[in-house]
Amino acid sequence: MAAFQELEKTKVAIVGLGTVGTGVARLLLDFGDRTARHAGRTLWLEKVVVRNLDKPRGVRLPPGVLTNNLEEVTQNPEIKAVAQLIGGLEPARSIMLQLLESGKDVITANKALLAEHGAELFDRARELGRTIAFEASVAGGIPIITNISQCLSANQILSIHAILNGTSNYILTRMEEDGCAFADAVAEAQRQGYAEADPTMDVDGTDAAQKLAILAHLAFGARINWREIPRQGIQSVDAADLRYARQLGYRIKLLAVAELVDSQLQLYVSPTLVKIGTPLAEVRGAYNAVSVVGDAVGRVFFHGLGAGQMPTASAVVADMIDVVVGRAPITFRTLELWSKRYERLSPPPPEKRPGKFYLRFQVEDRPGVMAELTGVLGQHQISIASVIQQEPASPENNTVPLVIMTHQTTEGAVLSALEKIRHLSCVQGGYVMMRVRP
Amino acid sequence: MAAFQELEKTKVAIVGLGTVGTGVARLLLDFGDRTARHAGRTLWLEKVVVRNLDKPRGVRLPPGVLTNNLEEVTQNPEIKAVAQLIGGLEPARSIMLQLLESGKDVITANKALLAEHGAELFDRARELGRTIAFEASVAGGIPIITNISQCLSANQILSIHAILNGTSNYILTRMEEDGCAFADAVAEAQRQGYAEADPTMDVDGTDAAQKLAILAHLAFGARINWREIPRQGIQSVDAADLRYARQLGYRIKLLAVAELVDSQLQLYVSPTLVKIGTPLAEVRGAYNAVSVVGDAVGRVFFHGLGAGQMPTASAVVADMIDVVVGRAPITFRTLELWSKRYERLSPPPPEKRPGKFYLRFQVEDRPGVMAELTGVLGQHQISIASVIQQEPASPENNTVPLVIMTHQTTEGAVLSALEKIRHLSCVQGGYVMMRVRP
Questions:
Q1: 3-class DSSP assignment, residue A274
Q2: Is B253 a catalytic residue?
Q3: Which residues contact A179 (CB under 8 A, 6 or more apart)?
Q4: What is the per-residue pLDDT for A212?
Q5: CB-based contacts of B409: which residues, under 8 Å, 6+ apart?
Q6: Structural domains present in chain A
Q7: Please, which residues 25-44 of chain A have a Cβ atom closer than 8 Å to chain B?
């Protein structure tokens, strides 16, 4: 390899030196040769902006690089690209606007910010002739943004089925492999560093829905409010459900799905029964995976680490290179993401959401119960694919779990049926409802 | 979506209207809206050059587009990009040079041409300020070229393990699933359109080695002559080997491997035992897959159709878009592929190629044979991980198969041992040797 020392320098900066920021700094400082090879120039880390100068850091920065003053970036016209690696909505949004307004291209990993303020931020960037790159915002180390918006551009995308939340997948894997309860699996995920102290946004499907809104925008050219995506988390998944699913030949995964069905875009995030042996069912631990079907390319499947310091930093630095060499600005200009060019689209109502469903009830153990329950399903034109009914756990126990897997129907039909079933005297407590991947 | 009719036109052409060319023409003619959305302009198919004007075609071209005169492309300065979709080395090479010299950027799917004449063609393109794009040359519908050269650019790639030849994978899958012989599986692959009338280049590892040379160049920045890559095809794989592999917990796949081991780049194409349950072992039929490990991103796994009309056309059209919008020229300029900047590199000699190996012999069924054979292995410091020795098929049959799986050793040690073993009086005929993925 040639020497890269004499290459042209392009100055870059980082705002936010948390886990990912530290990884980005390491890649830029310690491995300049590889960024140089792919950028044809040196990405020179000029400034790193943090709130607290005194906090110990996991990377040794050259003197003069660390600052708590954002103006050292915004007022320095030599800095061209900034990795803005602050989580949450504010001050992340304001800082991104300040960076764009001071003439910087911005790289972000913040999917919540894009899902919430994408339209505003992208419009402003376009007005200013600037670029926002966001590969790291979805699926961490899997370069799914570039693959969908660039590599598969000759296709009409037909469907995306994805595991986008590594925390949930880790929890479900623990529950399945160790037979433990949801709460215990969460605690284990926290011990292993896969879950935050408050894991709500991960386990309730918020994180996956925000990422899905971004992918669906790229793939289907529709502007989607992530809040409108029908969304169910994994909190209601019980160890028993994983066992029943297995008996039926499935595993349970938190799937994020965007799919054209009869020309209508179906979107949902839901714990979903996925057939054992199919690639998505075999995604374990904190991994992510995306299965994309294009009408020309067929099915392409991607699997990799969806989070973590270095996988995410890998995506951020690839974006920095793309920004600096000029590829990302071309993509950004051409696609006009979140612009008025794209139609606002809301997912269809429940009666227009087709699917197969897994249902679990706790019912009285007496004659006629099955007939009563399945009678209600029949009234709603829901036909049954499989049933599991087991002996009561002990003779004193007079209720038993009843598991029903439906054939293809609609979510609306199932919800109407459940509203009736819930009020039957033979049914105790609530119910569990999940999707089944056909 | 906005109307795309009034967009700027960029004129493009196709040379060669075989299977892939026909697919590309269809995508450009029938689905202009999607290329327009991703290119911000219309890719206007101005000319299609063929040898024989009278041959029936699988696509309806507008009047005046079909021609047998290459000059209608080379003399037309309005045509900017040309998909050159002729197989083989000549006239593919000369036509590519003519296209470059007439000022066209060229998109190709011809890995043999690149593996053989990449240095010449890329040098010429650089001198002329032109671009060659070649996503479709490796792994068909899997966008592995872009992923390695762009998306994973922040990584030192540590290894690539890939199934790059769909024909071989289809044949091995048929042999495994139907228990049929190599020749029967080849015949079936030919009937299904997965193998050519002469499948030599697919089954002897040539095709995979040429693709591996391209990937290794991108990933490791080394210029490699594909002929120097140690290469073994699947012709010697017997249905019995698939059964023994299965007994040991493995499937046999034709793997193309490029891997840094102790800072030395190991390269080979070989039928390889891959542990059942790992992603590469589960790649079935005509699919391709690539498992890449980067030091930042970890393992990323890609799976998709490696050949066929529309998957390959999908890659060609994505390249056309990248060329026309200007992304591909940036990548081409920056990476300086096949240039003197990259070191020529030869794979190490057999004694420096570490690995685990699967060996099968036909030996006399008498006392002392095992001691004799394993004695030779021991003399070469090869230790044994597993052995399968079975009863003779019938009492009259006085030879039996003996299968040995080694621990980690070197290819050189195994080859030396085999040279001795082959001459032992207890060993009948030759031997089978394959790699085992650790």
A1: strand
A2: no
A3: A239, A243
A4: 97
A5: B354, B355, B356, B357, B380, B381, B382, B383
A6: 9-137 (3.40.50.720), 144-305 (3.30.360.10), 350-436 (3.30.70.260)
A7: 27, 31, 34-35, 37-40
At a CB cut-off of 8 Å and minimum separation 6, what does A71 contact?
Answer: none
Element containing residue B247 per DSSP (H, E): helix B239-248
Q: Do A314 and B331 touch (CB under 8 A)?
A: no
Nearest to B304 among A141, A300, A305 (CB): A300
Tell me the pLDDT band of B394, cut-offs 50, 70 and 90.
confident
Which candidate in A211, A275, A340, A352 is catalytic? A211
* pLDDT over 60 at B362, yes or no: yes
A230, pLDDT greater than 90? yes
Indicate whether B1 pLDDT > 70. Answer: no
Q: How far apart are alpha carbons A293 and A300 in whole angstroms?
A: 6
Q: Out of A52-66, B142-156, B368-382, B390-404, which region has the weakest mean confidence (pLDDT)?
A: B390-404
Mutation to test the A interface, candidates B314, B317, B344, most A Cβ within 10 Å? B314
CB contact under 8 Å between A314 and B302, yes or no, is no
DSSP lists the bridge partners of residue A354 as: A410
Q: Quick one: tokens of A344? A: 């606002």
C-beta atoms surrounding A268 within 10 Å: 23
Query: Chain B, 370-429: which have a CB under 8 Å from a chain A CB?
Result: none
Surface of A (302-361) touching B: CB under 8 A? 302-305, 308, 310-311, 313-318, 321-322, 325-327, 330-331, 333-335, 341-343
In terms of Cα–Cα distance, which of A371, A372, A383 is closest to A413?
Answer: A383
* DSSP strand pairing (A264-275 vs A298-305): unpaired
Instruction: State mean pLDDT over A298-305.
Output: 97
Please, are residues A246 and A285 in contact by the beta-carbon 8 Å criterion? no
Q: How far apart are CA A56 and CA B191, in angstroms?
A: 66
Closest chain B residue to the Cα of A310, Cα to Cα = B296
